[in-house]
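Fig. S4 source data, part A: sequence.
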Amino acid sequence: MESASVKGFADFLRVGEYHTIPYFCSMKSSVRTVLVIIIAALGLAACGGKNSGQTTAPKPSGDPAIEQLTQKILANPGDPTLYAARAGLFYEKEGYDEAIADLEKALSIDSTNITYLHVLSDVYLDYYQSRKALITIEKAVAYHPEHIPSLLKLSEMQLIVRQYEASMRTIDRILRLDPQNADAYLLFGMNFKEKGDTIRAINSFQKSVELNPDLIDSWINLGQLHAAIGSKMASRFFDNAILIAPKNVEALHAKADYLQDQNDLTGAIALYKQIVLIDPQYEEAYFNAGLLYLDLDSIPEAFRQFDLAIKVNPVFVPGYYYRGIAAEISGNIAQARANYEQALRLAPDFVEAQEALRQLSNQ
């Protein structure tokens, strides 16, 4: 049986739809360059785990690299580089409290160290403490007022907390120091985009790629903005991003979204398949492909894609809900019920799953 809710899934819910943000904000999915430098300088592998969060003598973590650093710290408690290195290991394993404690200790010894301040700001941002991230990078700028990477990061943080005018004033400071800074124009574009000023956003992104043709985020934003105004040039901008970085899943995802909006569902599915070849753990690609297969009435393949998304992330609630829908359409009511119930176990307030179960009970 086909529920009325089946049609238009791609428009109803796209998990992971790509909306670009300044490149500094992509930290959770990438290796932090300054952090890696800190660790590499000490010849240590980034393979840590969480511990109790104590600064000088945390409980054993079970990780040899962290334990090695802890012993070095006990022997050399005045060396800030050791705390920073251990913070890096914790950070890579999302041990945010431990990383913060170690970075604060490092900064208590070397308070103006710009690298420590940058990494601490990153940790706060990944820990959903954007205000503290902003305050930390403001300190870096106060200590180093002409350091352009810090100013760029400050502008980005101001953008994240919606301080648009402050962000743009910071960009003006950058351009006074470096009038040809492509990243500053990228951030100008992001500010204008957030404020709904499409024309000036397009002009800013265009200027950024004129100065640095390798700025993938700018190409993607140009594609999205041109698509929003119905320009046929949009596809070319997405293609430019992919040409620069053929394995960049964000660029491929953005192009897939565009093709989906153009009703080229098979083209979008092909890109999602390309994404999972590059990153088999990219659950959104499986899920979005599943939504498109539903729109194409290819129910068994939709079910398979939702199943793959759940295997990648066993607590992926939408995956269970839509796998239930695919099972229901196929007539497998017991399987549908089990999926809706699992979605509700993970998210008891999930209204759509509640309604789906109610409808099954009324049949």
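Fig. S4 source data, part B ends here. Confidence is low (pLDDT under 50) at residues 1-57.
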